Amino acid sequence: MMIGSDPVGALRLAGSGTKFAAALPGGLNVGQWLDRRLGTAPVFLYVGVAIGAIGGFVALYRQFTRALREEEEARQRCSAQWDSIFSSPCW
Description:
The chain is mostly helical and 91 residues long. It is 79% helix and 0% strand. The chain has a domain at 20-76. It has helices spanning 7-38, 43-82.
């Protein structure tokens, strides 16, 4: 089983991309709003975009590492189950 071969796993990873895509405009909008309220343009715009980008990358990293960990666990379970019977595991 590889990442993306499972439809549910593929949808989960696509959801991570959506989170990342939403984080950037979210940070941009919050930064613009703060700049308008405080009259500090474009300081908070840059800060908001940076925080949005960092948050998006963190979300992507966590999701991908979780998917890799789940794939490795499934591979180990499958290998332990079928190793004594067949030479190749069940994926």
